[in-house]
Inverse folding.
């Protein structure tokens, strides 16, 4: 696991700490669907439908998402059960979260199962920081 270089790096991921830890998206400013804010206020996990009605889990403001139907297929569970399990694994610090910095700004956030492989794709102007939902690296 790679820790942030300094306190400034830890604070680069900004979601208002005034946001409640688990509210509807309209209460947190996350948009449509539901939104869960990490204990340190740095991440917002969103669950929303795309235009085709597919339910997606991702991090507010960033590109990475996973389809709930795919989680169901991979786990062999009904999609709703797989969604709940995935969210609980994130919230209970069982899954590692990658934060990609590009030119010093957060460019993307995703759940990773292979941090070493993720590091192989870094460009010269990028840095990866790995953390858990609770903020620990």
């Amino acid at each position: 696991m790679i820790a942030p270089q300094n306190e400034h790096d830890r604070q680069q991921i900004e979601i208002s700490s005034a946001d409640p830890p688990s509210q509807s998206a309209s209460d947190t400013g996350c948009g449509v669907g539901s939104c869960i804010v990490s204990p340190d206020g740095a991440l917002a996990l969103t669950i929303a439908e795309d235009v085709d009605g597919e339910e997606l889990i991702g991090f507010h403001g960033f590109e990475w998402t996973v389809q709930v139907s795919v989680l169901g297929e991979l786990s062999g569970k009904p999609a709703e059960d797989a969604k709940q399990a995935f969210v609980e694994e994130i919230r209970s610090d069982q899954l590692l979260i990658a934060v990609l910095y590009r030119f010093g700004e957060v460019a993307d956030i995703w759940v990773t199962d292979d941090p070493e492989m993720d590091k192989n794709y870094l460009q010269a102007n990028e840095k990866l920081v790995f953390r858990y939902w609770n903020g620990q690296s």
About this structure: The chain has five helices and eight strands. The chain has one domain: 7-131. The helical segments are 7-10, 25-28, 68-75, 79-91, 115-120.
